[in-house]
Amino acid sequence: QVQLVESGGGLVQPGGSLRLSCAASGFTFSLYAMSWYRRPPGKERELVAGISNLGGSTNYAGSVKGRFTISRDSAKNTVYLQMNSLKPEDTAVYYCNARGIVDRRDYWGQGTQVTVSS
After folding, report:
1. H or E element: which one contains 112?
2. Do 90 and 116 meet the contact criterion of CB atoms below 8 Å apart?
3. Which of 19, 52, 102, 21 has the alpha carbon at shortest distance from 4?
4. In which band, very low, low, confident or very high, does the pLDDT at 54 lie, cut at 50, 70 and 90?
5. How confident is the model at residue 34 (pLDDT cuts 50, 70, 90)?
6. Side-chain half-sphere of 77: how many Cα atoms within 13 Å?
7. For position 83, what pLDDT does the model report?
8. Distance (Å, rounded) from C-alpha 36 to C-alpha 47?
């Protein structure tokens, strides 16, 4: 069955870094664009970053551009989100998303909490 398993969240001080990982299984990784979303406390879910199915293009929310980097490893079926210069407003539950480029199916991970606080 399809699984997206996020890891790497935690508590970090402002200015610190974290790397989130999302291990995918149960589908053809190369046929899915991958994205990271987040849901800050009391707010709606928002797109953070996305990467095309073969990794050739990426896009970022304006609030994270220049600080976050999304990447994918096809050998490991894993997508990453490197987060640098973290701010308290980055505090949220971060979710991994996979969207099929052919079948348009949508899969979600269970989420991982990121808390930025001193």
Report:
1. strand 112-116
2. yes
3. 21
4. very high
5. very high
6. 14
7. 98
8. 6
Q: Which residue has the tokens 């949508």?
A: 106
What's the pLDDT at 11?
Answer: 98
The pair of three-digit structure tokens given for residue 77, joined into one six-digit string: 């079926």
Rounded CA-CA distance 101/111 in Å is 23
Residue 103's pLDDT is what?
Answer: 87
pLDDT category of residue 97 using cuts at 50, 70 and 90: very high
Single out the residue of 27, 107, 24, 33 nearest to residue 70, CA to CA: 33
Where would I find the beta strands (DSSP E) of the chain?
3-7, 10-12, 18-25, 32-39, 46-51, 58-60, 68-73, 78-83, 92-100, 106-108, 112-116
DSSP one-letter code for 41? T
